Amino acid sequence: MAHAYTPGLKVVEHTVLTKHRRLPLPGEILVSKGDKVSAEQVVARTNLPGNVQTLNVAGLLGILADEIEEAMLKKAGDKIEKDEVVAQSKGLFGLFKSQVKSPINGEIENISKITGQVILREPPIPVEVIAYIEGEVLEIIKNEGVTIKAHGSFIQGIFGIGGETIGTLEMAVDDPDQILTEKDIKESFKDKIIIGGSIVTCDVLEHARKIGVKGVVIGGIEDQDLKKFMGYDIGVAITGSEQVGLTLIITEGFGKMSMADRTFNLLKSLSGKKSSINGATQIRAGVMRPEVIVPLDKAPSKKSSDISRGSGLEIGMAVRIIREPHFGAIGKVMALPVELAKIETEAKVRVLEVELDNKQKVTLPRANVEIIEG
């Protein structure tokens, strides 16, 4: 019988994790295969070319374009400093000379006798790539980056904002139904990643940012609170590059939604441990989910899950409904009818029967659920 492959959020206590850490341009690899690395350790670095500026030397000096080389005091490849004189006219009888000064620190890249312009380039921008997770260097990608392997816990969210950050997990609430409030966020949570319950507001996020919290993992958030916190409407593009002062991971959806017991209890068991989180989300082609990764000190004695493998729907699996009218509800697959069934739109699709946590049974299209893998 064929499998129906369904997207799924993973909540895994023990798994083998691999992360590819790549440079945007070819550069220098700072580690070797087999090295043990910490999450904050720089594993590769390179330099991005500096910004280019054009200086109309001929126009500023009132000379012809093909006379520019005679006026230049610097040549292509020379280093320059801001306000340094780079070109000078002959003047009248050696007097009344006009000068052109560099507007930047950098170097002269090109001098054109055709346009009379000089191209200046600002200093290169250093870029460093850190390991992000604590583990072992599995592979070296020559001049590009590394692959890092680790054993740990892996939890995916449904939506997030903010990029990669590293910090210790701390529980801010005692119950997955609890609303995260300002009084729950202590001064001691500075530089920590805190776990909330069902919902967080803009004011509470701003308070967390003021305290210096690095990340917040929560069940839900209202759309207007997210928009207010960010200062603009995020739309549906890829997230993760927002500069909002902290990383936010939503595990269940929009609105007041209690964090799934399974997710909350796993995070609670990991409290006090160092974790790596990333809010990057992409819901279209090339799906990307926000994540919480907590490396373990050693490989588990029991068999680990492999988060890279696909999963087919099976009876007994835990699933989350991702469309109305039961959006966000969690349940268990009770039946997978082979026959096509007609839905409200009159289309015929494959369906499944799910028993929700409140024991209610619903039948819905298979495309309306995602597997909660663990």
What does this structure look like?
With about 375 residues, this protein is mainly beta. It has five helices and 28 strands. The chain is elongated, with a radius of gyration of 28 Å. About 10% of the residues lie in helices and about 40% in strands. The strands form five sheets. The chain has a 17-stranded mixed sheet that branches. The longest helix has 10 residues, at about 200-210. The chain has helices at about 55-60, 70, 200-210, 225-230, 260-270; strands at about 10-20, 30, 35, 40-50, 50-55, 80, 85-90, 100, 105-110, 120, 125-130, 135-140, 145-155, 160, 165-170, 190-195, 215-220, 245-255, 275-280, 290-295, 305, 320, 330-335, 340, 350, 350-355, 360-365, 370-374. Strand 22 and strand 23 form a beta hairpin. Among the domains are: about 50-120, OB fold (Dihydrolipoamide Acetyltransferase, E2P) (Beta Barrel), CATH 2.40.50; about 160-290, Glucose Oxidase, domain 1 (3-Layer(bba) Sandwich), CATH 3.50.30; about 320-374. Helix 3 crosses helix 4 (about 225-230).
> For the record, what CATH class of one domain applies?
Alpha Beta
Number of helices: 5
In percent, how much strand structure appears in the residues? 35-45%
| DSSP strand tally | 28
Specify the structural class: mainly beta
Give the arrangement of secondary structure elements:
Elements lengths: L7 E15 L5 E2 L6 E2 L4 E7 L3 E4 L1 H5 L6 H4 L7 E2 L4 E4 L10 E3 L4 E6 L6 E4 L3 E6 L4 E7 L3 E12 L2 E3 L3 E7 L20 E4 L6 H10 L3 E7 L1 H8 L16 E8 L6 H9 L4 E5 L12 E5 L9 E2 L11 E4 L8 E6 L5 E2 L5 E2 L1 E6 L4 E5 L3 E5 L1
Parallel strand pairs: 1-21, 1-28, 15-16, 16-17, 17-18
Antiparallel strand pairs: 1-13, 2-4, 3-12, 4-11, 5-10, 6-9, 7-8, 9-10, 12-13, 13-20, 14-18, 15-19, 19-20, 22-23, 22-28, 23-26, 24-25, 26-27
